[in-house]
Amino acid sequence: MGEQCPPELEDLGKKIVESCDGLPLSIVVLAGILAKLERSKACWSYVAENEIWHHFQQKAKCIDILALSYKFLPQNLKPCFLYVGHYPKNSKIYVRKLIELWIAEGLIPKETGNKLPEDVAEYYLMELIDRSLIQVESKRTDGGMKVCRIHDLLRAFCIEESKRQKFYDIITATGSSNLVNPRRLFMYQKASTSSLGANHSSVRSLIFFGGGGGDLICWKAILKDFKLVRILDISSTHMVPRIPNRIVHLIHLRYLKLRCVHGYSSRIPKAIFDLWNLETLEIAGISVILPKSIEKLKCLKRLCLPRYSYIPSLNGPSNNLKILSYVSFRDSNGPSLCHMCELRKLGILLREEICNPHVFWQNLPTLANLQTLKIHGYNFPRIDTTFPSKLTKITLLLESEDISLNSWGHF
Protein backbone atom coordinates (compact mmCIF):
# COMPACT_ATOMS: atom_id res chain seq x y z
CA MET A 1 0.00 0.00 0.00
CA GLY A 2 1.09 3.62 -0.09
CA GLU A 3 1.13 3.51 -3.91
CA GLN A 4 -0.84 5.73 -6.26
CA CYS A 5 -4.32 4.46 -7.10
CA PRO A 6 -4.77 3.87 -10.86
CA PRO A 7 -7.00 6.65 -12.29
CA GLU A 8 -9.54 4.19 -13.72
CA LEU A 9 -10.11 2.75 -10.22
CA GLU A 10 -10.40 6.01 -8.26
CA ASP A 11 -14.20 6.23 -8.41
CA LEU A 12 -14.59 2.61 -7.28
CA GLY A 13 -12.05 3.18 -4.49
CA LYS A 14 -13.92 6.23 -3.19
CA LYS A 15 -17.19 4.30 -3.29
CA ILE A 16 -15.69 1.48 -1.21
CA VAL A 17 -14.23 3.89 1.38
CA GLU A 18 -17.50 5.82 1.68
CA SER A 19 -19.35 2.53 2.26
CA CYS A 20 -17.18 1.86 5.34
CA ASP A 21 -19.04 4.66 7.18
CA GLY A 22 -15.80 5.90 8.71
CA LEU A 23 -15.07 2.64 10.57
CA PRO A 24 -11.24 2.63 10.85
CA LEU A 25 -10.84 -1.15 11.13
CA SER A 26 -13.08 -1.71 8.11
CA ILE A 27 -11.06 0.75 6.03
CA VAL A 28 -7.74 -0.80 7.04
CA VAL A 29 -8.90 -4.38 6.42
CA LEU A 30 -10.44 -3.49 3.05
CA ALA A 31 -7.21 -1.78 2.06
CA GLY A 32 -5.48 -5.06 2.83
CA ILE A 33 -7.92 -6.89 0.56
CA LEU A 34 -7.49 -4.47 -2.33
CA ALA A 35 -3.70 -4.48 -2.00
CA LYS A 36 -3.66 -8.22 -2.71
CA LEU A 37 -6.29 -8.21 -5.51
CA GLU A 38 -5.67 -7.73 -9.19
CA ARG A 39 -5.99 -4.02 -10.03
CA SER A 40 -8.86 -4.35 -12.41
CA LYS A 41 -12.38 -2.92 -12.55
CA ALA A 42 -13.85 -6.42 -12.36
CA CYS A 43 -12.15 -7.26 -9.04
CA TRP A 44 -12.75 -3.88 -7.42
CA SER A 45 -16.37 -3.84 -8.64
CA TYR A 46 -16.97 -7.19 -6.94
CA VAL A 47 -15.91 -5.63 -3.63
CA ALA A 48 -17.83 -2.38 -4.23
CA GLU A 49 -21.07 -4.15 -5.13
CA ASN A 50 -20.87 -6.82 -2.41
CA GLU A 51 -24.04 -7.36 -0.38
CA ILE A 52 -22.25 -6.48 2.88
CA TRP A 53 -22.88 -2.78 2.17
CA HIS A 54 -26.62 -3.27 2.63
CA HIS A 55 -26.25 -3.57 6.43
CA PHE A 56 -27.32 -0.49 8.33
CA GLN A 57 -25.75 -1.34 11.68
CA GLN A 58 -22.08 -0.41 11.82
CA LYS A 59 -20.92 -3.42 13.86
CA ALA A 60 -22.73 -5.88 11.59
CA LYS A 61 -21.24 -4.19 8.54
CA CYS A 62 -17.76 -4.35 10.09
CA ILE A 63 -18.09 -8.07 10.85
CA ASP A 64 -19.20 -8.72 7.30
CA ILE A 65 -16.21 -6.81 5.97
CA LEU A 66 -13.97 -9.04 8.09
CA ALA A 67 -15.74 -12.09 6.67
CA LEU A 68 -15.09 -10.78 3.17
CA SER A 69 -11.41 -10.35 4.00
CA TYR A 70 -11.32 -13.93 5.28
CA LYS A 71 -12.99 -15.14 2.08
CA PHE A 72 -10.23 -13.57 -0.02
CA LEU A 73 -7.44 -15.19 2.03
CA PRO A 74 -5.42 -17.93 0.30
CA GLN A 75 -6.44 -21.34 1.61
CA ASN A 76 -3.13 -21.93 3.39
CA LEU A 77 -3.49 -18.72 5.43
CA LYS A 78 -7.05 -19.29 6.67
CA PRO A 79 -6.30 -21.80 9.47
CA CYS A 80 -3.26 -19.79 10.59
CA PHE A 81 -5.42 -16.66 10.90
CA LEU A 82 -8.22 -18.46 12.77
CA TYR A 83 -5.68 -19.97 15.15
CA VAL A 84 -4.51 -16.54 16.34
CA GLY A 85 -8.01 -15.89 17.70
CA HIS A 86 -7.57 -18.37 20.56
CA TYR A 87 -5.33 -16.00 22.52
CA PRO A 88 -7.09 -14.18 25.39
CA LYS A 89 -8.38 -10.68 24.71
CA ASN A 90 -5.70 -7.96 24.64
CA SER A 91 -2.91 -10.47 25.25
CA LYS A 92 0.55 -10.21 23.76
CA ILE A 93 1.23 -12.88 21.16
CA TYR A 94 4.87 -13.91 21.12
CA VAL A 95 5.80 -14.71 17.56
CA ARG A 96 8.29 -17.47 18.39
CA LYS A 97 5.71 -19.48 20.31
CA LEU A 98 2.97 -18.81 17.73
CA ILE A 99 5.20 -20.15 14.96
CA GLU A 100 6.12 -23.22 17.03
CA LEU A 101 2.42 -23.93 17.61
CA TRP A 102 1.53 -23.42 13.93
CA ILE A 103 4.19 -25.98 13.02
CA ALA A 104 3.20 -28.45 15.76
CA GLU A 105 -0.47 -28.14 14.71
CA GLY A 106 0.44 -29.10 11.15
CA LEU A 107 -0.68 -25.73 9.74
CA ILE A 108 2.69 -25.19 8.05
CA PRO A 109 3.93 -27.57 5.32
CA LYS A 110 6.98 -29.55 6.44
CA GLU A 111 8.78 -29.13 3.15
CA THR A 112 8.50 -26.14 0.83
CA GLY A 113 11.39 -26.32 -1.57
CA ASN A 114 14.54 -25.56 0.40
CA LYS A 115 12.72 -23.44 2.99
CA LEU A 116 12.44 -24.49 6.62
CA PRO A 117 8.95 -24.59 8.21
CA GLU A 118 9.98 -21.70 10.49
CA ASP A 119 10.76 -19.53 7.46
CA VAL A 120 7.48 -20.46 5.78
CA ALA A 121 5.58 -19.62 8.99
CA GLU A 122 7.24 -16.19 9.18
CA TYR A 123 6.21 -15.57 5.57
CA TYR A 124 2.61 -16.55 6.38
CA LEU A 125 2.62 -14.18 9.35
CA MET A 126 3.91 -11.34 7.18
CA GLU A 127 1.13 -12.03 4.69
CA LEU A 128 -1.46 -11.66 7.47
CA ILE A 129 0.22 -8.46 8.65
CA ASP A 130 0.27 -7.05 5.11
CA ARG A 131 -3.48 -7.67 4.98
CA SER A 132 -3.90 -5.74 8.27
CA LEU A 133 -5.33 -8.82 9.99
CA ILE A 134 -2.49 -8.96 12.53
CA GLN A 135 -0.73 -6.00 14.16
CA VAL A 136 3.00 -5.86 14.97
CA GLU A 137 3.63 -4.58 18.49
CA SER A 138 7.40 -4.94 18.80
CA LYS A 139 10.39 -6.22 16.86
CA ARG A 140 13.63 -7.95 17.72
CA THR A 141 16.96 -6.19 17.52
CA ASP A 142 17.63 -7.91 14.19
CA GLY A 143 14.40 -6.49 12.73
CA GLY A 144 12.35 -9.67 13.01
CA MET A 145 8.92 -9.75 14.64
CA LYS A 146 8.84 -10.35 18.39
CA VAL A 147 5.30 -9.57 19.60
CA CYS A 148 2.04 -9.15 17.70
CA ARG A 149 -1.64 -8.56 18.53
CA ILE A 150 -5.07 -9.08 17.00
CA HIS A 151 -7.91 -6.55 17.09
CA ASP A 152 -10.88 -7.48 19.31
CA LEU A 153 -13.34 -7.64 16.40
CA LEU A 154 -10.97 -9.76 14.33
CA ARG A 155 -10.49 -12.06 17.31
CA ALA A 156 -14.28 -12.35 17.77
CA PHE A 157 -14.64 -13.27 14.10
CA CYS A 158 -11.91 -15.94 14.41
CA ILE A 159 -13.62 -17.50 17.44
CA GLU A 160 -17.05 -17.66 15.80
CA GLU A 161 -15.69 -19.02 12.53
CA SER A 162 -13.58 -21.59 14.40
CA LYS A 163 -16.62 -22.83 16.29
CA ARG A 164 -18.55 -23.11 13.04
CA GLN A 165 -15.74 -25.22 11.56
CA LYS A 166 -15.12 -27.13 14.84
CA PHE A 167 -11.57 -25.84 14.53
CA TYR A 168 -11.33 -25.07 18.26
CA ASP A 169 -13.33 -24.18 21.35
CA ILE A 170 -12.48 -21.88 24.27
CA ILE A 171 -13.38 -22.83 27.84
CA THR A 172 -13.83 -20.08 30.42
CA ALA A 173 -14.86 -20.04 34.09
CA THR A 174 -18.49 -20.01 32.95
CA GLY A 175 -18.08 -23.12 30.82
CA SER A 176 -17.80 -23.90 27.13
CA SER A 177 -19.95 -23.36 24.07
CA ASN A 178 -20.80 -27.09 24.14
CA LEU A 179 -19.16 -27.53 20.78
CA VAL A 180 -19.30 -31.17 19.71
CA ASN A 181 -15.98 -32.85 18.95
CA PRO A 182 -13.64 -29.82 18.76
CA ARG A 183 -10.08 -30.65 17.73
CA ARG A 184 -8.52 -28.02 19.99
CA LEU A 185 -9.38 -26.80 23.49
CA PHE A 186 -8.04 -23.63 25.06
CA MET A 187 -8.61 -23.28 28.79
CA TYR A 188 -8.78 -19.75 30.22
CA GLN A 189 -8.20 -18.69 33.80
CA LYS A 190 -10.27 -20.59 36.40
CA ALA A 191 -11.63 -22.94 33.75
CA SER A 192 -11.87 -26.60 34.68
CA THR A 193 -11.65 -29.80 32.68
CA SER A 194 -14.72 -30.97 34.65
CA SER A 195 -16.81 -28.53 32.61
CA LEU A 196 -16.01 -30.26 29.34
CA GLY A 197 -18.18 -33.32 29.57
CA ALA A 198 -16.96 -36.88 29.21
CA ASN A 199 -15.82 -37.42 25.63
CA HIS A 200 -12.57 -35.76 24.56
CA SER A 201 -11.51 -38.31 21.96
CA SER A 202 -11.45 -35.69 19.20
CA VAL A 203 -9.15 -33.27 21.07
CA ARG A 204 -5.63 -33.02 19.62
CA SER A 205 -4.52 -29.81 21.38
CA LEU A 206 -4.98 -28.80 25.02
CA ILE A 207 -3.55 -25.45 26.14
CA PHE A 208 -4.06 -23.55 29.39
CA PHE A 209 -3.78 -19.78 29.86
CA GLY A 210 -3.16 -17.62 32.91
CA GLY A 211 -3.46 -20.23 35.62
CA GLY A 212 -6.35 -21.96 33.86
CA GLY A 213 -7.53 -24.96 35.77
CA GLY A 214 -5.90 -24.09 39.08
CA ASP A 215 -6.08 -26.92 41.61
CA LEU A 216 -8.73 -28.74 39.55
CA ILE A 217 -6.22 -29.72 36.90
CA CYS A 218 -4.53 -33.05 37.49
CA TRP A 219 -2.56 -35.52 35.49
CA LYS A 220 -5.21 -38.15 36.12
CA ALA A 221 -7.77 -36.23 34.07
CA ILE A 222 -5.35 -35.55 31.22
CA LEU A 223 -4.04 -39.10 31.02
CA LYS A 224 -7.55 -40.55 31.14
CA ASP A 225 -9.52 -38.19 28.90
CA PHE A 226 -7.04 -36.78 26.37
CA LYS A 227 -5.21 -39.85 25.15
CA LEU A 228 -4.85 -38.63 21.55
CA VAL A 229 -3.55 -35.17 22.40
CA ARG A 230 -0.60 -33.94 20.29
CA ILE A 231 -0.06 -30.54 21.85
CA LEU A 232 -0.11 -30.09 25.63
CA ASP A 233 0.79 -26.80 27.33
CA ILE A 234 0.21 -26.73 31.09
CA SER A 235 3.04 -24.32 31.92
CA SER A 236 0.68 -21.61 33.17
CA THR A 237 -1.17 -23.83 35.66
CA HIS A 238 -0.45 -24.39 39.34
CA MET A 239 -0.21 -27.99 38.49
CA VAL A 240 1.37 -31.21 39.52
CA PRO A 241 4.63 -31.17 41.35
CA ARG A 242 5.78 -34.35 39.64
CA ILE A 243 5.43 -35.65 36.11
CA PRO A 244 4.05 -39.22 36.23
CA ASN A 245 5.70 -42.03 34.32
CA ARG A 246 2.33 -42.74 32.71
CA ILE A 247 2.87 -39.71 30.48
CA VAL A 248 4.43 -42.27 28.14
CA HIS A 249 0.87 -43.29 27.22
CA LEU A 250 0.39 -39.94 25.41
CA ILE A 251 2.23 -41.41 22.46
CA HIS A 252 1.05 -38.79 19.96
CA LEU A 253 2.60 -35.81 21.76
CA ARG A 254 4.58 -33.49 19.50
CA TYR A 255 4.63 -30.40 21.69
CA LEU A 256 4.97 -30.50 25.50
CA LYS A 257 5.34 -27.43 27.66
CA LEU A 258 5.18 -27.67 31.44
CA ARG A 259 6.41 -26.13 34.69
CA CYS A 260 8.35 -27.80 37.48
CA VAL A 261 7.18 -26.76 40.93
CA HIS A 262 9.80 -25.40 43.34
CA GLY A 263 10.68 -27.72 46.17
CA TYR A 264 10.25 -30.99 44.29
CA SER A 265 12.64 -33.20 42.43
CA SER A 266 14.19 -31.47 39.43
CA ARG A 267 14.87 -34.73 37.66
CA ILE A 268 12.67 -35.35 34.64
CA PRO A 269 11.30 -38.91 34.48
CA LYS A 270 12.81 -41.12 31.82
CA ALA A 271 9.32 -41.90 30.56
CA ILE A 272 9.18 -38.53 28.77
CA PHE A 273 11.95 -39.73 26.49
CA ASP A 274 9.83 -42.59 25.23
CA LEU A 275 7.58 -40.01 23.53
CA TRP A 276 9.26 -40.59 20.20
CA ASN A 277 7.03 -38.13 18.26
CA LEU A 278 8.06 -35.21 20.50
CA GLU A 279 9.41 -32.24 18.52
CA THR A 280 9.22 -29.49 21.18
CA LEU A 281 10.00 -29.89 24.88
CA GLU A 282 9.88 -26.72 26.96
CA ILE A 283 10.18 -26.78 30.75
CA ALA A 284 9.75 -23.69 32.91
CA GLY A 285 10.39 -23.20 36.62
CA ILE A 286 13.39 -24.55 38.50
CA SER A 287 16.49 -26.00 36.85
CA VAL A 288 16.29 -29.59 35.71
CA ILE A 289 18.68 -32.44 35.07
CA LEU A 290 18.02 -34.46 31.95
CA PRO A 291 19.01 -38.12 31.67
CA LYS A 292 21.10 -39.63 28.91
CA SER A 293 17.91 -41.16 27.51
CA ILE A 294 17.09 -37.80 25.90
CA GLU A 295 19.01 -39.18 22.94
CA LYS A 296 15.99 -41.39 22.20
CA LEU A 297 14.00 -38.35 21.00
CA LYS A 298 14.96 -38.60 17.35
CA CYS A 299 12.41 -35.95 16.24
CA LEU A 300 13.31 -33.36 18.89
CA LYS A 301 13.87 -29.92 17.32
CA ARG A 302 13.34 -27.49 20.20
CA LEU A 303 14.60 -28.05 23.73
CA CYS A 304 14.06 -25.08 26.08
CA LEU A 305 14.95 -25.44 29.76
CA PRO A 306 15.25 -23.18 32.81
CA ARG A 307 18.63 -21.54 33.37
CA TYR A 308 21.26 -23.73 35.08
CA SER A 309 19.75 -26.93 33.70
CA TYR A 310 22.09 -29.76 32.82
CA ILE A 311 22.09 -32.14 29.91
CA PRO A 312 24.53 -34.87 28.91
CA SER A 313 26.64 -34.59 25.79
CA LEU A 314 24.27 -35.40 22.94
CA ASN A 315 24.77 -37.71 20.01
CA GLY A 316 21.29 -39.02 19.13
CA PRO A 317 18.84 -36.18 18.42
CA SER A 318 21.38 -33.39 18.25
CA ASN A 319 21.57 -33.31 14.46
CA ASN A 320 17.87 -32.29 14.38
CA LEU A 321 17.91 -29.65 17.13
CA LYS A 322 17.19 -26.11 15.97
CA ILE A 323 16.73 -24.42 19.37
CA LEU A 324 18.64 -25.36 22.53
CA SER A 325 18.50 -23.21 25.65
CA TYR A 326 19.25 -22.63 28.53
CA VAL A 327 21.70 -25.46 29.28
CA SER A 328 25.03 -26.48 30.69
CA PHE A 329 26.93 -29.62 29.81
CA ARG A 330 28.29 -31.64 32.73
CA ASP A 331 31.33 -32.88 30.91
CA SER A 332 34.90 -32.32 31.97
CA ASN A 333 35.94 -32.48 28.33
CA GLY A 334 33.60 -29.60 27.46
CA PRO A 335 30.31 -29.48 25.55
CA SER A 336 30.30 -31.35 22.27
CA LEU A 337 28.40 -29.35 19.64
CA CYS A 338 29.88 -30.74 16.46
CA HIS A 339 26.75 -32.85 15.76
CA MET A 340 24.35 -29.90 16.09
CA CYS A 341 24.65 -28.78 12.50
CA GLU A 342 21.03 -27.51 12.28
CA LEU A 343 21.14 -25.42 15.46
CA ARG A 344 19.80 -21.87 14.96
CA LYS A 345 19.48 -20.65 18.55
CA LEU A 346 21.70 -21.58 21.49
CA GLY A 347 21.66 -20.47 25.12
CA ILE A 348 24.45 -21.93 27.21
CA LEU A 349 25.98 -21.63 30.67
CA LEU A 350 29.79 -21.76 30.62
CA ARG A 351 31.68 -22.22 33.87
CA GLU A 352 35.15 -23.63 34.31
CA GLU A 353 34.15 -25.66 37.37
CA ILE A 354 31.46 -27.49 35.33
CA CYS A 355 33.02 -28.03 31.94
CA ASN A 356 35.91 -26.95 29.75
CA PRO A 357 34.71 -23.86 27.83
CA HIS A 358 37.67 -24.00 25.45
CA VAL A 359 36.04 -26.99 23.73
CA PHE A 360 32.89 -24.91 23.21
CA TRP A 361 34.82 -22.15 21.45
CA GLN A 362 36.63 -24.70 19.30
CA ASN A 363 33.32 -26.26 18.22
CA LEU A 364 31.44 -22.99 17.71
CA PRO A 365 32.53 -22.48 14.06
CA THR A 366 30.94 -25.84 13.17
CA LEU A 367 27.47 -24.45 13.94
CA ALA A 368 27.03 -23.12 10.42
CA ASN A 369 23.32 -22.26 10.80
CA LEU A 370 23.54 -20.57 14.22
CA GLN A 371 21.77 -17.19 14.25
CA THR A 372 21.33 -16.37 17.96
CA LEU A 373 23.76 -17.06 20.80
CA LYS A 374 23.31 -16.36 24.54
CA ILE A 375 26.19 -17.00 26.93
CA HIS A 376 26.00 -16.80 30.72
CA GLY A 377 28.68 -17.04 33.41
CA TYR A 378 31.83 -16.92 31.31
CA ASN A 379 35.15 -15.63 32.61
CA PHE A 380 38.17 -15.92 30.36
CA PRO A 381 40.90 -13.37 29.62
CA ARG A 382 40.84 -13.92 25.88
CA ILE A 383 38.69 -15.71 23.31
CA ASP A 384 40.21 -16.81 20.04
CA THR A 385 37.52 -18.12 17.73
CA THR A 386 35.74 -17.59 14.45
CA PHE A 387 32.02 -16.96 14.67
CA PRO A 388 29.52 -18.66 12.31
CA SER A 389 28.70 -16.51 9.29
CA LYS A 390 24.92 -16.55 9.91
CA LEU A 391 25.23 -15.39 13.53
CA THR A 392 23.34 -12.08 13.87
CA LYS A 393 22.84 -11.70 17.62
CA ILE A 394 25.04 -12.39 20.65
CA THR A 395 23.88 -11.76 24.22
CA LEU A 396 26.53 -11.85 26.98
CA LEU A 397 25.44 -12.29 30.58
CA LEU A 398 28.80 -12.11 32.27
CA GLU A 399 29.70 -12.71 35.89
CA SER A 400 32.83 -10.62 35.45
CA GLU A 401 33.36 -7.28 33.75
CA ASP A 402 37.01 -7.80 32.86
CA ILE A 403 36.35 -9.13 29.36
CA SER A 404 36.95 -6.81 26.44
CA LEU A 405 34.78 -7.14 23.34
CA ASN A 406 37.97 -6.51 21.33
CA SER A 407 39.13 -10.00 22.28
CA TRP A 408 36.08 -11.79 20.84
CA GLY A 409 37.52 -13.24 17.67
CA HIS A 410 36.09 -12.54 14.21
CA PHE A 411 32.46 -12.09 13.14
Descriptive overview:
It is a single chain. With 411 residues, this protein is α/β, with parallel strands linked by helices. Among the domains are: 7-72, no CATH class; 78-152, Arc Repressor Mutant, subunit A, CATH 1.10.10; 278-411, Leucine-rich repeat, LRR (right-handed beta-alpha superhelix) (Alpha-Beta Horseshoe). 26% of the residues lie in helices and 19% in strands. It is built from 10 helices and 16 strands. It has helices at 10-19, 24-36, 41-48, 58-72, 78-84, 95-104, 117-130, 152-165, 219-225, 357-363; strands at 93-94, 135-139, 145-149, 169-171, 184-187, 205-208, 231-233, 255-260, 280-285, 302-311, 323-329, 345-349, 372-376, 383-386, 393-397, 408-410. It has an 11-stranded parallel β-sheet. It has a 3-stranded antiparallel β-sheet with strand order 1-3-2. A hairpin with a 5-residue loop joins β2 (135-139) and β3. It starts with 9 loop residues before the first helix and ends with a strand. Residues 51-59, 212-216 and 401-411 have low confidence and may be disordered.
